[in-house]
Amino acid sequence: MARFVVRRLIQMVLVMFAVSILTFLIFNVIPNGDPAVRMAGRQPTETQIEAIRKEWGFDENIFVQYFTTMKKVFTGDLQSYFTQLPVGEEILKGLPRTLSLAIGAAILWMLVAIAFGLYSAVKAGKFADRFLTIIALIGISMPVFWIGALMNYYLGFKLGIFPNGGYVEFTEDPIDWFYHLILPWTALAILFIGFYSRVLRSNVLDTINEDYVRTARAKGLSERQIMLRHVLRNSMIPIITLWGLDFGAVLGGGAILTETVFDLQGVGQYAADSIGQLDVPPVLAVTLFAAFFIVLLNAIVDIIYAYLDPRIRLQ
Amino acid sequence: MSAPEPAAPTPSDAALLDVDELRVSFATEEGVVQAVDGVTFELRAGEVLAVVGESGSGKSVTAMTLMGLTRSPNARFEGAARYKGTELIGASEDELRRIRGAEIAMIFQDPMTSLNPVQRIGEQIVEQIQEHEGVPDQQARERTVELLDRVGIPRARERVDNYPFEFSGGMRQRVMIALALSCSPSVLIADEPTTALDVTIQAQILHRIRELREETGAAVILVTHDLGVVADIADRIAVMYAGRIVEQGTLDQIFYDPQHPYTWGLLGSITRVDKPRPERLPAIPGLPPSLADRPEGCHFRPRCPYEFAECSKVPPLEARVGGRSAHLDRCWLSVEEKRDQREIRPGEIGLSAAEGTAA
Question: Is B67's Cβ below 8 Å from some Cβ in A?
């Protein structure tokens, strides 16, 4: 286990290093990306731009720029070029919102997908299976910005059953927090439910024909026990892989569309706004933050693997 | 009747399992496959019945049908199979569940895939014990350790918590046997239990099954394609071909006075270490028929060198040898003709056309 943790930590450092270099370089070669010009406001004089360049160190060699920026990442001094606000604080402000969205949605989509996938497999070929197949395809085909907007408009604005976007701190009012998150969770989960339930259905149908499932039946177990103890556990591994990647991405601010549609002001929305302004420091920080979560979730997935399948050893 | 008959039937003579005209067919894309076609046999307490035949002769399907393991939307069943008076073929899933594992238990062919790879072997046995007997965890575990010890797993107390991948094939088959015996079933069905194992392990496993039969008094149905395997262990043999039993009798009857040409062929195909090695392995020419498209009449007809006009009618399974009510076969040849045609070399029986002719 200790070796596993050390290896994963080393991997994390390498991934984040590579991600930081790529992000930094990309923003350096983007046309019209010169931050000094953009920071100087409308119709600046050449001297003004030059002054900004000097002040922010944009005239330095690119390696030096990278190192000073990265140093600021670690000391927490990183500032937005345009708003001049500290990036760390902005991310921390968005973090509980993104965490609330990601954790709730990930639990929701996993549970519902397991239920749908299992039920579909048990009823394979029957009406219930065909019905769920169509529902899943609809779920996969609907973009979140569209389904989210529809939900907001009809359920939020027209009928007033749900709040029309926005976020309430959990510490302030847990019930209102939950209430505000129902629509975002659902909108984000729909796509994943469709996808995951299809994958699980086919895994279950493969596993059902395994010899050990026949053994379980020959032992006199009920269909329910056979499904839950023998089939499901062996069918979960591919789903867990997907779940780790997707959950990591959503935690790292990947649910940009959902956050924007429901105006959650989370990390994803912050990243989206910063990208629009070609504001390198926040983008860099959010990217590192996302990479951190993806590597972390992958390590967690490996631990779940080892639990689900004892033939897999952590090393 | 004043004096009691000396050979009054003892309880063990009453059939434990009574299979009557069992038919199983599956609807497939190639048409209806008649996997089992009118199989009739009895199994008495404590006896070992070997069901022998080539791949695809319906022996495994017969065995699995008894436990309701072949049920599927495209399977059709006819006939009857009674276990201690309970009808198995039409039984509800709940009725069957009470019998599976507790009354009739099964050992499967491939021990490498028949155990759940992600569950400790002890848990897999405990699960069955608790399903049927609801004993506390600790007690079920103790019994599991004893069972593993009894089937010959060394250091059973430690190994009970191992996973299947930590066992060899032979050891896994022992675990399967322990699992099958865990609720003291009256009938043990062993479906080619040694096919996937190497030869030295085969002997050990068969030996173990025989010992356990003696200890527990369970009746055994041993499904195999290898007549050599049954010589040691079977009391009675049923030979199956293309979904039908073609000959049935005691071990001695089948080995020393076989009536059906197919049985001759099977007996001729046994390679023996105590005989000079033949140039090529003797084999029955031709292939078994497709179960979706079987020949009219006797199914063995196309491969049989003694085929004659009568063979286009289905021969009934009946006692044809005088004085032997338990020796049944399905062949139109007269008993005398069979005695003449059957090729018997010293200590060996074969199908005369089997040698020299290419398949």
Answer: yes
Question: Model confidence at A315, in pLDDT bands (50, 70, 90)?
Answer: low
Task: Tell me the average pLDDT across B338-355.
Answer: 64
Asked if A310 reaches chain B (Cβ–Cβ under 8 Å), the answer is yes
Q: How many CB atoms lie within 10 A of CB A10?
A: 10
Helices marked H in B217-315 — which ranges?
Answer: 227-230, 251-256, 261-268
Contacts of B124 (CB under 8 A, 6+ apart): B115, B116, B175, B179
Kindly give, in sequence order, each residue whose CB lies less than 8 Å from that of residue A54, ignoring residues fewer than 6 positions away: none
Closest approach of A130 to chain B, Cα-based (Å)? 17
Residue A219 has its nearest CB partner, among B101, B110, B118, at B101
Q: Tokens 């199983």 belong to which residue?
A: B24
pLDDT at A314: 64
- Give, to the nearest 10 degrees, the angle between helix A87-122 and helix A280-308: 40
DSSP 8-state symbol, B162: -
Stronger pLDDT, A32 or A237, i.e. the higher one: A237
The complex's ipTM works out to 0.85
pLDDT digits (tens, 9 = 90+) for B139-164: 999 999 999 998 889 999 999 999 99
pLDDT digits (tens, 9 = 90+) for B324-333: 888 999 999 9
Instruction: Single out the residue of B250, B329, B264, B347 nearest to residue B303, CA to CA.
Output: B264
Preferred mutation among B95, B118, B120 to probe A, highest tally of A CBs within 10 A = B118
How many helices (H) and strands (E) chain A has is answered by 15, 0
Per CB-CB distance under 8 Å, the chain A contacts of B69 are 214, 217-218
| Pairwise CA distance, residues B232 & B173, whole Å | 19
Any chain A CB within 8 A of the CB of B113? yes
CA distances from B259 to A109, B235, B339 (A): 66, 18, 8
* B61 inside 8 A of chain A by CB: no
**Helices marked H in B114-198 — which ranges?**
121-133, 137-150, 156-159, 169-181
Query: Where in chain B does DSSP place strands (E)?
Result: 15-28, 31-44, 48-52, 75-83, 86-87, 104-107, 187-191, 219-224, 236-241, 244-250, 318-319, 328-329, 343-345, 348-350
Partner residues linked to B76 by β-bridges: B25
